[in-house]
């Protein structure tokens, strides 16, 4: 006589899993997806459900293998086919991942933040870039300091004297899940520059720009947007002429002068804006303007 094994037939063991969950009509509905495919679906890279779903069904509890009843689905989505309901959940539901996946995602974000910071900061004296390991060590030092500092609750009685207090320096408390790596890297750079656990400054290029004075007031219909503008100053107000557009690329203007029929300015720019700046001046001056690199890596205080 065969011996029965107490193993529920509806138990589902899934790997590489990301659940997309939505709550409708006081009920929770879930669909199990491949975690590396759900973003492809939402970005319209792959919309084939069989490539996205681990199991082609709607559940109320994936871990227990409890599928949603036809009555519940019909009540919430009357007249809708199962695939239409699945697509609705995939597009509007909240992506849930396991603890290991969340840890791996946080580690990827952390590495991306460190790589961005390491590519944009230099030692102001030697102009040399730091290794990713040195940047990581410096950020860990800042997060340890932030954790050790006591948290003070705001006191309404102190509000009147807040204007007289020195501006509080940015505090780096580590990489946060669910936040964009570029935004976190920008804040990390501000914290490193403010606290200087190691000597750091923003890496910038020193350029000399020359342009005929005859085109400086020429109206620019669709001016390019320097990449640093929105990070540093919020919404960008488009310059109206060639000169204002060129100055918009420059973070620090060191000199400006006019000699005869030529305008010249020297300043510091973000390395990532050089190509756009060069293309802009070539198109606006028809080859009569010029961008010359004076120094590839300047340590500039911000």
TrEMBL record:
This protein's major location comes to cytoplasm
Query: Which positions fall inside the Ribosome maturation protein SDO1/SBDS C-terminal domain?
Result: 236-296
Which spans does this entry mark as compositional bias, Low complexity? 143-160
Q: Which keywords accompany this UniProt record?
A: Cytoplasm, Ribosome biogenesis
Q: Where is this region: Disordered?
A: 143-175, 221-242
Q: How does it assemble?
A: Associates with the 60S ribosomal subunit.
The text of the family note is: Belongs to the SDO1/SBDS family.
Q: Source species, please?
A: Periconia macrospinosa
Family matches, as Gene3D superfamilies:
3.30.70.240, Ribosome maturation protein SBDS, N-terminal domain (3.30.1250.10), SBDS protein C-terminal domain, subdomain 1 (1.10.10.900)
Q: What is the lineage of its organism?
A: Eukaryota, Fungi, Dikarya, Ascomycota, Pezizomycotina
Identification of the protein by name: Shwachman-Bodian-diamond syndrome protein
């Amino acid at each position: 006589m065969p011996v029965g094994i107490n193993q529920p037939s509806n138990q589902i063991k899934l790997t590489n899993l990301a659940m997309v969950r939505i709550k409708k009509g006081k009920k929770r509905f879930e669909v199990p997806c491949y975690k590396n495919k759900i973003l492809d679906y939402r970005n319209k890279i792959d919309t084939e459900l069989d490539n996205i779903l681990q199991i082609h069904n709607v559940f109320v509890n994936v871990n227990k293998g409890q599928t949603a009843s036809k009555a519940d689905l019909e009540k919430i989505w009357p007249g809708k086919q199962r695939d239409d309901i699945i697509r609705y959940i995939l597009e509007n539901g909240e992506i849930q991942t396991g603890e290991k996946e969340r840890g791996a995602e946080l580690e990827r974000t952390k590495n991306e933040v460190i790589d961005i910071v390491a590519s944009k900061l230099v030692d102001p004296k030697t102009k040399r870039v730091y290794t990713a390991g040195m940047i990581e060590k410096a950020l860990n030092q800042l997060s340890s300091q932030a954790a050790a500092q006591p948290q003070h609750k705001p006191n309404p009685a102190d509000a009147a004297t807040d204007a007289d207090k020195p501006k509080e320096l940015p505090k780096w408390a580590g990489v946060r899940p669910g936040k964009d790596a570029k935004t976190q890297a920008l804040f990390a750079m501000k914290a490193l520059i403010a606290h200087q656990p190691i000597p750091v400054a923003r890496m910038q290029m020193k350029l000399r720009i020359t342009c005929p004075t005859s085109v400086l007031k020429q109206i620019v219909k669709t001016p390019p947007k320097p990449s640093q503008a929105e990070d540093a100053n919020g919404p960008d107000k488009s310059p109206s002429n060639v000169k204002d557009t060129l100055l918009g690329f420059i973070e620090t203007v060191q000199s400006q002068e006019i000699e005869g029929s030529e305008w010249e300015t020297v300043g510091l720019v973000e390395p990532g804006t050089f190509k756009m700046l060069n293309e802009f001046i070539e198109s606006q001056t028809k080859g009569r303007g010029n961008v010359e690199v004076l120094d590839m890596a300047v340590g500039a205080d911000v």
